[in-house]
Amino acid sequence: MKTSKKTSKKPAKTGKTTTADPALRAFTLVKKYVLKHYPNAKTIAKIDGPSLVYTVVDSRGKTIIDPQLFLPPARTVKKAWENAKYSIWFLNKLQKTRIQDEQKIYKTLSKED
Fold this sequence. Notes:
The protein is of the alpha+beta class.
């Protein structure tokens, strides 16, 4: 005698979160971008006078936001993650242009010989 097993088909998990709130979705994308470059990054709060200032640090506790960019202190967690994303993006663009400039210099030096 055969017994039939009931199988319930559950939707496959894709790993993507669906959210109706566009602001939450934007924050999730910003945080995902930063975590891609700095795994285990987290937000910390510092007391700055009467208010809190938030910053994003890597796994070693070093701030991700480059102080040479002179970004204003983040008063919200969202702004701290946005500043971290901007810092990563800007430094990446700077690095790419330096590489291209160095390659141009090497090409002109090799042509002179």
